[in-house]
Amino acid sequence: MQFIFIRHGQGEHTLNLPNSLNHPDPSLTQNGMEQAKMLRNQFPLSVDDVLMVSPIRRTIQTAIIWSEGVRCRKIVTPLVSPRIFPQKKERSSTLPCNVILTRDKIQLEFADFHLVEDLSLELWNKGINTIPEKKFNSIAEMFLKRCRKLGKEKIYIVSHDGTITSYRQFITGDKLSREDFPKETGWFTIDC
Known about the structure:
With 192 residues, this protein is α/β, with parallel strands linked by helices. It has one domain: Phosphoglycerate mutase-like (Rossmann fold). It is built from 6 helices and 6 strands. 40% of the residues are buried.
């Protein structure tokens, strides 16, 4: 099975660092929308494809723009929500730009997306941003098993730089750093 991890397009929270990280629920910028459109050429989608998407507005918007006109299956899951990488013991809270949208808000605003319903409220409320590495490894294993059960040759995952790097490190066993982060709409393909 092939996992294609794709980072969302440029978000408003990156325009005036570090202050913009305090911007709650940032959308894609115009540049981010253009980046998402370019994914159509890089990864043309079909009705048979599955997108696993983080429950954050900019990732959902990236998936919407990329999949425009294609009725592929789009699934929102906190198992690929933002994650601090590398984990820092002193960081115990999530920045406003990375607060997960509620399930109700996602269903109201993004009706074409399916929600993974059988996860704990804690995961839906807090995500995986600050959880310890050992707990993340268990969640990563659960996520990969869920993806395999879909029976697809490849799964597209629209997520965040720290999350993608955390999954890459877990899957490959390589020691990675922030220098390994994908750029906006950058991707990594991992066979597993």
